[in-house]
Structure formats: structure tokens, C-alpha cells
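Subject: Sanity check before I submit

Could someone independently write out the C-alpha cells for this chain? I want to compare against mine line by line before I put it in a report. The sequence has 298 residues.
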Amino acid sequence: MFADICGSTALYDRLGDDMARRLIAHCIATMNREVSAHHGKLIKTIGDEIMCTFPSAETALRAACAMQQAVENGKPIDGHQMHIRIGFHYGDVIIEAGDVFGDTVNVAARVAAITRAGQIMTTLAIVDALPPDLREKTRQVMRAEFKGKQEQLDISIVVWEQDDMLSTRIGSPAFRKSPENNNELILHYCGQSLKVNKERISVVIGRGEVCDIIVQNDFASRQHARIELRFGKFIIADQSTNGTYVRFRDGNVVRIAREEVILQGAGSISLGQPYSENPTGLVEFSIHSIHAQHHVEK
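---
Independent answer below. Compare away.
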């Protein structure tokens, strides 16, 4: 398991070395307490990240949830709230001189790299090893392609908040946002702009003439991907031959193939072609608060 403090570089820039170090040290100590409480072993601290092992998939998942709860529910220090992201994988490792190595470690690190603030991501190997009650806390969200791996890996998000089981939360009045708090997603492509919101909850992008956004791209399928507003989240679902690449604002890139991923913040979408091949004609996306925009217009 890798647990990483989000935005630490910005903390140093904004607060200075002494305060940033104090906040990071406090956050790492909070995470380490939960590792120990759940029978885990801290292998090493790498800057603002910890690497640890656990005796089972179950203890690892419980520890990950406890770490998120402890950090998110912790009292802000001098008004600064910390956030972490956690990625973990299950399998054999090589133990040498107190450190661990091998493919399992590499996969766990890559899962952590595609995880966003406040999230826990894991693999099918973990999900399959969980008891039924904990397996219900996972939702498959994407199929990721990692460098050095021939096969794509199914990646699941862990619903870690105690009151955040999706089946109950979606139906509760508190979860249904009022219209004035709704967000909208804006898509830009070659001078075209299109909004996805409560009035237009779904758009299709691709080469076909029936698409809402028609792209000029030989790598794209006729109806390449669908973007829709679902329970307050903007979801992109790949339905193509070559897959879809999503690059988020922080530089993380996720490839999905016949799978879905949640769009957050802002970024770009490449249809059928990895960013390393310098694709042209990217579809840019950004999420905005409708309430905030109306406030500015007034």
C-alpha cells in the first residue's frame, strides 16, 4: 500500500518550509497510527508518502478506510485541512533488508499514482480476496493500462466514508443536490462548446455524423464515448475500438476500454490515441458550479 499526501508541493510554496513540514509530519503520524492499529508494517517513508504492508487484503482495506477517516475528520492545523490518496494491490513480494520489491509493489505504486485526493483505489486481486461485506464497499470504475503490463487491470474505488454506501446515499435527500448547487461540465473541441448539465444529461463524441461532438480523428470510433451526468457525477464511458485516454489537471492519465471513469476538475480527452503519440484534436473538459457562474453574472 502507498498512501500519499496531496498538494504537498503547494504547501511548501504557500506556507514555507517550517509550517509545511509540520503539517506533513502530523499527517504522516496520523496515517502511521492507523497502520499499526490494523496490524500493518511501515516499510518506509518517501517524502510525503508512506509505503506499508499488511497480513491480508481485509486488514489493508480497513486500514485504508481508517486512514482516510482520520485525516479527513481530523481537526485542521492552523486552518489547513490535509488530504491523502491511497492505492494498494495484493500479491507476493520480495523481502530484502527490511524493504519489499517486485511486481506487486510496482502495481500498487501505479494504482496510487492514478488515485485522486480523498480516494482509495485498488485492484481486482484485492477485491477477490475480501469477505463479502467488505467487497460491497468497492465499485469498479475503470480498466487501466500500466507501463510494463501486457494486460489491463480492473481498478475499483473503495467507498470508505461510514455513511457513504452508494446504495443508500443516492436515495437520501441529503445526497440529492438542489438545482442551484448543480455543476455543469463544459466540453471544447475545435471551436465547438457543449454543456452537460441537468438540462442535457448526456452527449456522445466520435467520428459519426449522429454524434453531439463530431471529431476529425482516424483513431476515433464512430460513436467513441458517452459523457453523462449520473447522480451528480460526470461519467465518461468508453464504447470504442481503440480506447479513450483522459488526462486530468494534475497530469495523471487514465486509459479506459469499454469501462467508465469519473471526470473531475478539468483536463482533456484523447480518442483512441495515447498522449505519448502527440494526438491532435483533444477534447478539453472543465467542471463549473452553475450557482457560482450565476452569482458572477448578477
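---
OP: Matches mine. For the report I'm noting this point. DSSP finds eight helices and 20 strands in the chain.
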